[in-house]
């Protein structure tokens, strides 16, 4: 901040910070979470203690953490960006050597009574790191091949560690979030064209590796791709999830069957009805209108973040906000595409709606960083 700006502008301090919280963002996040509470109550058959109460407690805790993060000055989080990335990276390495296995994947790290999923931490850490990197880098060098290569390495190395867990969905989200920060930082579009070409080549290589000694994906991942391409191939096996999801999605019609009247979820035809496929239970009970309403809330969150980024004059803050918004977009876009049959099943939850604490906590920590940027934005002195 220049000397003139320092004398005519200042960042809020003390209790004045409360006045500058982005309350519109808080309201939208609470509205989305409330829809999640409603659906968890429904799919549990009216059992409040089973999923709804624990989820409400997790949201209250995560919301408190969001405010705590938001009230800390942004320069502090800027100074911790490299450390956050480094710690997350080391924990990912720890998962590879000491991680515990659950549901066929080695994704968790047990540190005494605490069970961590470092890949969730990396989703936020990669955004912080990339925002700090491009804040440090001279804007004239953002498209220089060497500095682009450094950025790509920062993204791909942790993504590879996540991919071999295996966790394809999270790896794609880390790549997508990092790539979005590169795009917003002004990296030449020619590089993204090259990435698309490389992606097409990689997909071809993945299919060519099937059945060989150097197969790049696990067998169950190939079965998910087969189910995506042809849901009728194995209706009682690998295609069962998506077939039941599509039945639930279509049976809701325009306005739905009514609250707690969904047959797919109540009769347990729909698997993972409280986690990955919770959007289908919403669509079955509230129909097209309910699905569009939730999507409108998600879009409202993205728009609120974009407005906050445009208002910020700090390059790090702007890139951080846009990166967090981009990461959030990937959450609901991948999940909705997955449950609508537009993408293979990859196990990405619906943000703030699906049951679970790890994803919710990291999402709200991310939005806490957004709040920090909003609260501590220099303003005209009164």
What does this structure look like?
With 382 residues, the protein is mainly α. The protein has one domain. It has 16 helices and five strands. The protein has helices spanning 3-8, 16-19, 23-43, 48-70, 74-79, 81-98, 118-136, 145-163, 168-185, 189-208, 219-229, 240-251, 263-266, 278-311, 315-339, 358-375, and strands at residues 9-10, 100-102, 105-111, 114-116, 379-380. The strands form two sheets. It has a three-stranded antiparallel β-sheet, covered by helices on one side. Strands 1-5 form a two-stranded antiparallel sheet. A hairpin with a 2-residue loop joins strand 2 (100-102) and strand 3. Helix 7 packs antiparallel against helix 15 (315-339). The longest helix is centred in the last third of the chain and has 34 residues, at 278-311. The two termini are 18 Å apart. The model is unreliable at 1-7 (pLDDT under 50).
Please give the largest β-sheet.
3 strands, antiparallel
Coarse morphology: globular
- C-alpha-based Rg, rounded: 22 Å
Order of helices and strands: HEHHHHHEEEHHHHHHHHHHE
Distance between the termini: 18 Å
Strand content: under 5%
Average pLDDT, to the nearest integer?
A: 85
Count of β-strands: 5
Number of helices: 16
Which runs of at least 5 residues are low in confidence (pLDDT < 50)? 1-7
Give the number of domains. 1
Fraction of residues in helix = 55-70%
């Amino acid at each position: 901040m220049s000397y003139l700006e320092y004398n005519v502008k200042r960042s809020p301090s003390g209790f004045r910070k409360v006045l500058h919280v982005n309350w519109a963002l808080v309201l939208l996040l609470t509205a989305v979470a409330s829809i999640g509470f409603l659906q968890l109550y429904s799919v549990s058959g009216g059992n409040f203690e089973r999923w709804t109460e624990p989820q409400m407690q997790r949201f209250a805790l995560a919301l408190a953490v969001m405010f705590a993060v938001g009230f800390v000055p942004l320069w502090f989080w800027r100074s911790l960006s490299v450390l956050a990335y480094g710690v997350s990276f080391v924990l990912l390495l720890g998962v590879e050597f000491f991680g515990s296995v659950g549901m066929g994947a080695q994704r968790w790290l047990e540190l005494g009574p605490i069970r961590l999923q470092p890949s969730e931490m990396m989703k936020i850490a990669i955004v912080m790191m990339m925002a700090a990197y491009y804040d440090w880098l001279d804007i004239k060098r953002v498209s220089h091949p060497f500095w682009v290569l450094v950025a790509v390495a920062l993204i791909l190395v942790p993504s590879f560690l996540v991919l071999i867990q295996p966790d394809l969905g999270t790896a794609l989200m880390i790549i997508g979030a990092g790539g979005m920060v590169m795009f917003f930082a002004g990296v030449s579009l020619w590089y993204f064209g090259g990435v698309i070409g490389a992606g097409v080549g990689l997909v071809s290589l993945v299919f060519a590796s099937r059945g060989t000694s150097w197969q790049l994906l696990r067998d169950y991942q190939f079965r998910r791709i087969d189910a995506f391409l042809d849901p009728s191939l194995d209706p009682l096996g690998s295609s069962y999830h998506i077939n039941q999801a599509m039945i639930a999605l279509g049976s809701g019609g325009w306005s739905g069957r009514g609250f707690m009247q969904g047959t797919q979820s109540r009769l347990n035809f729909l698997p993972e009805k409280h986690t990955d496929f919770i959007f289908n239970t919403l669509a079955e009970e509230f129909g097209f209108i309910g699905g569009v309403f939730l999507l409108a809330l998600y879009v409202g969150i993205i728009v609120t973040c974009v407005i906050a980024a445009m208002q910020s004059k700090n390059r790090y803050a702007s890139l951080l906000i846009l990166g967090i918004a981009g990461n959030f977009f990937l959450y609901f876009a991948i999940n909705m595409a997955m449950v609508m049959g537009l993408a293979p099943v990859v196990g990405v939850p619906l943000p703030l709606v699906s049951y679970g604490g790890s994803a919710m906590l990291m999402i709200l920590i991310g939005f806490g960083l957004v709040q920090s940027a909003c609260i501590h934005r220099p303003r005209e002195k009164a």
